[in-house]
Amino acid sequence: MIRVLLVDDQPLLRSGFRALLDLEDDIEVVAEAGDGMEGLALATEHLPDVALIDIQMPLVDGIEATRRIAADPALAGVHVVILTNYGLDEHVFNALRAGAAGFLVKDVVPDDFLHAVRVAARGDALLAPSITRMLINRYLTRPISTGTGMGLEELTNREREAVALVAQGLSNDQIADRMVISPMTAKTHINRAMAKLRARDRAQLVVLAYESGLVAPGGS
């Protein structure tokens, strides 16, 4: 059973999301919150698999709530999905940097919404290759400084190669083709890299790859 926490300051939206989720046999809404502070308390109390968090809320916004969840070892199993009205913007990028697994626009169609909850619960990032490329082009082409002490030296050459391909927006199948390995082996390289870099998910791996200097914006 996938346990979900809803955090949004608009009761009507929360009730709409809950109505969809309650129809699914494999999903249970364990709690609802109307602001980020309450959401953090309920996340600690219920330890949901997925926290759907609005990006703009009173008291504690979605970015700060994501940052606190990502920083708390007790909440390591909570996968944050940011809810936004505006699509990919600077707020969403900051939430991904803070540790969100991905984002959903609030007018998402029901089937895509439910699919996203299941994907996040599995620990996968809600970043399609096209979204990854948009993220790179829009927010990671600004000047950055090469990061140090981020654990890059712990990566094997194959893990570095896999991370670089993730950061280019390639899927596991495409990475497997490029590296001439099986998709399962590609996934293994990526998972090991995430563990070594302490990245919560694929979304954060993309951000780390660029901010560390492992991959240069515009590079191939």
TrEMBL record:
Q: Which InterPro entries match?
A: CheY-like_superfamily, NreC/VraR/RcsB-like_REC, Sig_transdc_resp-reg_C-effctor, Sig_transdc_resp-reg_receiver, Tscrpt_reg_LuxR_C, WalR-like
Is the Mitochondrion keyword given for this protein?
no
Give one Pfam hit by family name.
Response_reg
Q: Where is the Response regulatory domain?
A: 3-121
Q: Write down the superkingdom of origin.
A: Bacteria
Listed name of the protein = Response regulator
The membrane spanning regions, by residue number, are none
> Could you tell me which PANTHER family the record lists for this protein?
TRANSCRIPTIONAL REGULATORY PROTEIN NARL-RELATED (PTHR43214:SF24), TWO-COMPONENT RESPONSE REGULATOR (PTHR43214)
Q: Any idea which residues bear 4-aspartylphosphate here?
A: 54
Keyword list (alphabetical) reads: DNA-binding, Phosphoprotein, Transcription, Transcription regulation
Boundaries of every HTH luxR-type domain copy: 148-213
